[in-house]
Amino acid sequence: MRYTDTMTTMWKHLISVGFTPEGTAGLMGNLYAESGCNPMLVERLCLKRLREAGQVYDDASYTAGVDSGAISRSAFLSPLGKHYGYGLAQWTTSARKAALYDLCKQRRVSISDLRTQLDYLCMELRESFQKVNRVLRVTRSIKEASDIVLLRFEAPADAQAQRGKRLSYSQETYNHYYYKEGTHIMISNCGHDEHGRYSGGQSGDQTGKEWAEIPWYNRPWTHVIRFKEPRQRQYIAALAREAAGNDRIGYDQNQRTTFWQELKVSGYHPAQIRKPCESDCSAGVAAICKAVGYLIGDEKMQQISPDMYTGNEVAVLRRAGAEILTEAKYLRSDKYLYAGDILLCERHHTAICITDGEKVQTPYYTVGWHEDEKGWWYADTTKTYYADRWALIKGRWYLFGSDGYMLTGIQERDGRLYYLTETGPCKGACCRTDESGAIMVWDV
């Protein structure tokens, strides 16, 4: 791959609108395969067919023709009555090209204007490809991001054959931009409404930027607030990532507790919120920490007030069991921060770290089953374990509680009852009945 200033601008823009580094890499890897990340690129077959018809263009002269009107709107939408790609995403259909064309004319910029194409790309994802948009905002898997953009957004005829190449481009993009020296960890940041103000906007995130994942920055911060248990921090980071990825959650200081109200209704998972609501930076931190208390059964965290603000945040979260860090290495650098740490600029702003700094020591688990004094649990990776979910393990379904331990016996989940084996070598496995009504382990 050949990296350009255009690609650097694309990376920064896509990160700024709230896509995870993995999501951004998956999207850019696909755009590189489509256009080489060149906003002026005309599909080569289009130029060939035009040349055969006596109309000789290259990328620059074709673009200039569209800009000047020498190539009409209708001729741009369907050259020679056919459909060909143009721009970063090689937009092909008349409807998609028309929306890009009209936006550029409205802004009085070139059809190849990079910022306008990026804005149009994000608008398409937000409005017409909502599932793809959600995945790009929360995923920690480059493969998941690359595949969903390929299969659901670009959708070329030979999509399956393209998966390997596009994943390779996505991984290279990630390695170049995210792991290069000086790259910062990501934080979940709730900072302003769609107008750049602190109140008065419409409920929900209208721009994808009201609550978004952004790189750490030196505000400067006055405190880092850290809950001591890894499980607490993991849940805080996970919920903060969900909140940043759900465009039903926006910013408005005058409606700051509606996020907490909807969070309760949604089982304490921001990703499940369906009704537009609002928060601000400190109300968001309070609601997430309070929700974690209910998910893991921590009574101190449950007592956190949803009315907490940046002036009393230290006192409130200290009472909930957090420690307060004020050493310079925590405040002026992201290298020693854990995912789940809370950044505070007292009386001004607060945000949540959602990735680890390069010098922290993260837990290491052996993948597989583990048993301790509390019961059985399962590490699905060297850094994570199943919690508050079903998991299919070696052909059998198991249910794990919010504390990460395997459940047994009769359990209710989403309004339905299940029986999970209580003893024996199949302990914890979900059961079903056979034709006679006898209970048996459900082998998938």
TrEMBL record:
Domain Phage tail lysozyme: 6-177
Keyword annotations: Repeat
Protein origin, superkingdom: Bacteria
Organism: Moryella indoligenes
Pfam families: Choline_bind_3 (PF19127), ELLD (PF25309), Phage_lysozyme2 (PF18013)
Entry protein name: Phage tail lysozyme domain-containing protein
Residue ranges occupied by any Endolysin-like domain in the UniProt entry: 187-359
InterPro entries per record: Cell_wall/Cho-bd_repeat, ELLD, Phage_lysozyme2
